[in-house]
Amino acid sequence: MAHEDDALEHERASWKPSPGLAVAVTDPVHNPELPPHRARMTDKDPAAMKTAVRTVYTLFYLSVAASIWAVAAYMIFPIESGRIVDIRNNNLFVGLGIALALLAIGIGAIHWSKAVMSDKEFIEPRHATRGRDTTRAAAVQAFADANEESGFGRRTMIRNSLIAAVAASIVPGIALFRGLAPQDTPEHPNGGNPVYLLSHTMWKKGMRLAHDPEGTPIRAADITLGSAVHVIPEPLAELSHHDGYLEEKAKAIVLLMRLLPEQLNPETNKLDWTYDGIVAYSKVCTHVGCPVALYEQQTHHLLCPCHQSQFDVANGAAVIFGPAARALPQLPIEVDDEGYLVAMSDFTEPVGPSFWERH
Questions:
Q1: CB neighbour list of residue 152: distance below 8 Å, 6 or more residues apart
Q2: Rounded CA gap, 68 and 268, in Å?
Q3: pTM
Q4: Burial (0-12, 13-18, 19+ Cβ within 10 Å), 111
Q5: CA 326, CA 359: separation in Å to the nearest integer?
Q6: Where is it predominantly found (predicted)?
Q7: DSSP code for 347
Q8: Using one digit for the tens of pLDDT, what is the confidence trace for 175-194?
């Protein structure tokens, strides 16, 4: 073996490349370094820098004005009037105001970064250790340098206009949320209280259940096993849109289903709220108020298509999946002398989404 190793070493030492054989030479890769810095017009001309700064804070103040306009348009064209022209103008001008406010902030921020902030290239070496006093001091210095390069601390007009624009951009959203809250009316002085408003619907004792939207009364004998029927109070079909049709329907809509009586597991205080396996629940999801309208016959589950909350019809419409916080309110029902399904009373709890004031 020793003789063979010596022969191999001698062969390696005596080997030379043939004249036609190219041999690659591994030299270190040349570092091209950073390209020469090209000064911008704003770097060379103070007047151009002033113009750029003026443009940036003008855009930010334009955003403030657009946000104020969005709130003003919301009040000038009230959707509560119910007129189509007001609803159309409200959507148009409020949307334009919000769009312009956000667009002005975006354009101003981009112009600020490209024309005003320092655009010099910097190299930050990576360190093997961290947490030392020198490292902490370097981090503080980095923030100070970033503040100096961006001009956020020095250029007060840009800083103040940006803060004002961002703060004002939130105001239209706050104003729009006001429209979601119940409001007092001469007919309903307590209408501003959501507990009061959502605790009272059109349903009354003896009021017939009717098909949605035609308003035809429903006989118990017509509800087949496994069916799901969309229901409204019978008098609702006679209301016009100017008489509050949509508002009343939004609270009173019901989904009617029929199971085998032995499949139902009602609570003790709701034993007489069904009729021969027929149950009625509010269609308004207890999460954010979407219509719960998808019924699975085999599992007896109701599904909200918005956020996939699921309710178990056989067990009081209890929540079995999803973000909904409570079961769907149940409408107590019975039949009248003519065999029509009627309500025994209104809902005994507020319909719709859960909220803090609900008891």
A1: 158, 159
A2: 55
A3: 0.53
A4: middle
A5: 12
A6: membrane
A7: -
A8: 777 666 555 555 555 555 66
